[in-house]
Design a protein that fits this description.
Layout lengths: L4 E3 L5 E3 L3 H18 L1 E5 L10 E5 L6 H8 L5 E5 L7 H7 L3 E3 L6 H12 L3 E4 L16 H9 L3 E7 L4 E2 L2 E2 L10 E6 L14 H26 L2
Parallel strand pairs: 3-11, 4-7, 4-8, 5-6, 5-7
Antiparallel strand pairs: 1-2, 8-11, 9-10
Length: 229
């Protein structure tokens, strides 16, 4: 699959991460996630078999990204905060096709790489809440709508349930789920978030964000009913 070079900051060429790296990352994710826990994957067939697609994933724990990488039917390039790219993790994450993003600015290099993934017909993984939280899609950023509209890609909502262990009725934010425990990964129906009239204005993106949040929240509620979580 052809990689698309584009211009980043200061005129530098920025190339979309290679599918080969993400495929290696998927293999690592499969080995780790199925080796340490017992993922139950529901609805993976809903991910389009080819062409650009965005996986919009709720985010309650650091293992949510690797869990989706190891359970999705296609290799995934995730947008990951730059703070994770430290020490040996930097070349490793780059090597498996992940995209470093500075959340404090409009990171043009990351935007270019992410759009390149979609232009190459790949799968872009996004945590639309922007950071770890309750994993309930309660606070969406506009970036997801931007990539969906600019990249012409459908969105597949993904609910990861069980990655955040609850103790005494409260969520244990940093604790890993018990080894060999079940974690549910539920893929929803793909949908088009674009404006029906093809507009790309700020208001169109804001309206798209509202529509996306409704779809993601609805999927999460359905996933909880389906899994009993």
């Amino acid at each position: 699959m052809r990689r698309h070079p584009r211009r980043g900051e200061a005129g530098r060429q920025v190339t979309a991460p290679a599918l080969r790296g993400a495929a290696v990352g998927r293999g690592i994710g499969i080995g780790l996630m199925y080796g340490l826990w017992r993922p139950r994957v529901l609805g993976a067939w809903r991910v389009p078999a080819s062409g650009p697609v965005i996986l919009a994933v709720n985010h309650a724990h650091n293992i949510d990204g690797p869990m989706v990488m190891g359970t999705a039917p296609r290799p995934v390039h995730f947008l990951i905060k730059k703070e994770a790219f430290v020490g040996p993790l930097d070349p490793f994450l780059r090597g498996i096709g992940q995209v470093k993003v500075d959340r404090a600015i409009a990171d043009r290099a990351a935007i270019t790489q992410a759009l390149g993934v979609l232009a190459d017909g790949g799968v872009l993984g996004i945590f639309p809440e922007g950071t770890r939280g309750e994993g309930d899609f309660a606070s969406l950023r506009a970036g997801l709508a931007y990539f969906a509209v600019r990249g012409g890609a459908p969105i597949v909502p993904v609910a990861v349930l069980g990655s955040r262990e609850r103790r005494g009725g409260r969520s244990a934010r940093g604790a890993l789920p018990p080894l060999r425990s079940r974690i549910d990964v539920v893929f929803g129906d793909a949908f088009d978030a674009g404006d029906p009239h093809g507009r790309r204005t700020r208001k169109a993106l804001d309206d798209a964000t509202v529509r996306i949040q409704q779809r993601l929240t609805g999927h999460l509620e359905s996933a909880r009913r389906l899994t009993g979580r």
